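User: Could you write out the 3D structure of this protein bound to erythose-4-phosphate? I've included everything you need below.
Assistant: Certainly. Input first, then the structure.
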Amino acid sequence: MKFFADTADVDAIRELDELGLVDGVTTNPSLVKKSGRDIIEVTKEICSFIDGPVSAEVLATEADAMIAEGRKLADIAKNIAVKVPLTLDGLKACKVLSGEGHMVNVTLCFSATQALLAAKAGASFISPFIGRLDDIGIEGMELISEIRQIYDNYGFETEILAASIRTVNHAKAAALIGADVMTAPPSVIKAMAAHPLTDKGLDTFLKDAAAAGLKIL
Ligand code: E4P
């Protein structure tokens, strides 16, 4: 499973990258707003040290304008995945941009039938939003299962990018189902390392080492 960092915070991406935990990055207008940076400038900086796909989202809602914005975003670096919303205009833009050889991430996916359309439009990635479905009382992870089954039934190569991951349990469930990628805030990715028995065990080992006067260097 690939891990994408769901943030436009360059320092947070660098920190995770040093741990070998960044296979790509996803941003959206809200994340760019949070960073306080210009969208082109921050995307360029992320692409300067991340080799994997970096998603940058269009702001237009009409297909031709999305295509123009998508081309400008794709000009930033070879590893840009142009993010378009799952609307009919977004699908049209996806077909054109993917036909030109650009990676396209179709975002704001909330149903399996939407995901089927994105695959047919040539999306490189489909982004089903787990947390936002959970927020309204719908089991978001079921959507990942449904899309996995449909894509496998027909051999679609579009990668399932589990998005709106809010918890460690979301990450685990998406991995068990077989999502190709998950994108999560750095805090969630780092929380995956935590276990109270690890802390307790380490504490005991360190106390025993000190009591025995053990040294390595
Ligand atoms: C990523 O591509 C999405 O924009 C992001 O995961 C959305 O997460 P949120 O629902 O927590 O805002």
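The pocket of erythose-4-phosphate is lined by residues 6, 26, 28, 107, 127, 129, 131-132, 163-164, 166, 183 (CB under 6 Å).
User: Perfect, thank you.
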